[in-house]
Amino acid sequence: MSSDQWPAVPVDATDAADTTGTPHPREAIDASPTAIPAVDDASDKQLGRLAATVARLREEVEQAHAAADGRALVEMARGVLVERLRCGPTQAAKHLADLAHAADVTELELAADIVSQAAQDRLTDAARDFLDRVAHETPADATQPPPADGADPTVRLRTAESGVLAAGDTQTVAESLLEHALKPLDATAVAVWAAGPGTSLRLAGHAGFQPDEADQWHYVPPGVATPARQALLTRRSLWYPAWTANELPSIGRRGGPYGSRMAVPASTEGRIQGVLEVAWPRRQPPLSPQIRRQIEALAELVGHTLESLPHTAAQWPQAGAGTSSELIELADGLRDPVLLLRPHFGPDGTLTDFRIHHVNPWFKDPAGRSAAAVTGALLLEAYPMVAGEGGLLEMIEHVHATGEPFRAAGMNFTALVGQVPVTGPADISISRHGAVVLFVWRIEDEAARLARLLQHAQRLGRIGAFEESFLTNEVTWNSQLFDLFGLPDDATPTRLEQVGSHAHGDDAAPLGRFLRTVLHHRRPATAAFRLLRPDGVIRHMRIVAEPVLDSAGHLNGVRGAYQDISAQHWTEVALAATRDQLALSEQQTAESNRLARQLQHAIMPPTHGPIDAPGLEIAVRYRPAEDDSLVGGDWYDAIVLPSQQVLLSVGDVAGHGISAATGMVALRNALRGLATTGAGPAQLLTWLNLVAHHLTQRVTATAICALYDPETHILRWARAGHLPPLLVRAGEPATVPSLDGLLLGAVSEAVYEEGQVRLEYGDVLLMYTDGLIERRDRSLQESLDQLLTTVRRPAEALDQRLDQMLTHSSADTDDDTCVIGIHLRAPAA
Where in the chain is the domain with CATH 3.30.450.20? Predict the structure, then answer.
């Protein structure tokens, strides 16, 4: 880029006026019509002249500082020429002036180029990237405007570097960075934070912020989230396009309006020495990668400065951050395995690993190696599994970079034993002391593992152990026992003889027997009591104790345990109440079933006396269920009506128990009353359906209703969802053709079909309920076929036929069964 595009920064104040054509400050002020307003008053004129003088002197001071920084950069370039040309300082100065004149650039620009070519560092790369981007980027493509002063980035960065190197404190460093490198990027303030113990931060230098606010932010303790701390913990540059103090507080929050912020870690050799925080007064567009690299290069320069300036390190009183010998003494004094790790850098200067500098005497390698075999080795060589062990290596790098300590309990630690990974839980502690990382781990041994298991078992079982020594008069409780008694951990444990003071008064007698058995008879004993806790909670406890005797049989102490059995106690109480309730329910159920059985037997006895009907032989059988809980609603009826017709009916109410029995009584009696009207079987079932649907507790039932006329020998019948009757004629049984009819109570209105059968002399008609044939493992048709086979067997009398049907019944539901049989006898000769 040519010098007319990026005007040179003058070497001194007098040269600046000659080389750039800029008028003298006094002339500039006098020539400006608005610099000093024209007034008539003489005193105002004097004040105006004084103000102009102050402004001129301030500008001259600033130019003097810039010239001084420029001269430092020129002197660095002359030193490079002395080394490369093997000449003296005078020849080097003359050679630099000749080269600048020949190249048509200022000595400052040429000096910056010479230093950058000699250094080839991050500043050089940042400047070169920026120049390459500007050279190939059109204005329409530009995402970042060029610097406001138009200065060559190489000159700016190298001038800032020379100012930093010449600075004697970090405050001067901050001012130099802002003046020479960041102001051209429109930044108005900069803060240099030095990292301290526990990720604390101290304001090491600042520029552009109000002095009183800088005093308030001189120290940021650990735990306060700021942009600088976020950059420290994340170890990367953070850009805040619209920073607000309400979101993340930081210095400058009273200087609004708030603009953009950038926080960049300042590190050296993998360690973050501090953070460079840059502030813009207005919201900025996203910084280009080249500008970000320039700021990151400045942060690296800040990191080297924070490390090198002696007063910066002295601000932090770091306990344990002494010499290597002091750290070794500290590690050797710890009773856990300790590794002292030093950072190991690759050829390019990046952190690649950690070298084991020292192991303490308590070190025990999981793979069985000696301390000498591990000392001096790289961490990844000795323990390669840390690279993937839950990010352990990354955590060590994080502690080394930020200084934030790391603690973890029960973390898995894996070591290779003969190429076989062996994993075990370990307590890990990682901390940074100066440039050394202290890595401590505690692997559980067998005793610790058993103690942990015992502790978990006591916690799960709500058990607390105690031990009482009569020799030392000391009582020892574990932590679980304090929790059971509702006492704080620092409370005085209760002696065994005083446990009665914490118990319910009604439990004094069993506790007294317990104490006499243990302390007087010297035998193990147990007792249960109610514990009155200080918080008012009553717990049911069981105490188990045994005496501790010496060889002569003297009582030296007592040891034992308390167990909270409240859950068991209340479970037993609930079970007892449940058993009582169950017994009462069983008693009530048995009583209900007994009443249902008595009701059925009173209305329908298992056998029935002879029924006087003209020309008919009538027999009935009722077989109740064997289980009283299965008492159902089956019924039968056979009576002679006033019209001399014979009413025959069977039915089955759905369900079991007293409700089914009472429903059966209601339907049976209703049918008897309705039959006296002289209506036919279909009409009777229609009325009986209304009774079942409206006048009962929604009873549903199946039924057959038949009326036999002795004069015509005609049997009229209708069915409501019931099995059709059987007709045995000439010894051959057959099912009477079925009729349509819905079960009773299902709907409010139902229509039933009526059929009729003319009986012949010798015919037998059988009606029954489903308890006679129903089986769980076969269809209804198969059960009917089995019934027909049974009925085919010859029988001498009607009663014998009914008994035979019950005897050979294949039903397996243990349900009630009703059977009615009528036999039309031939008239006597």
Answer: 324-444, 452-564
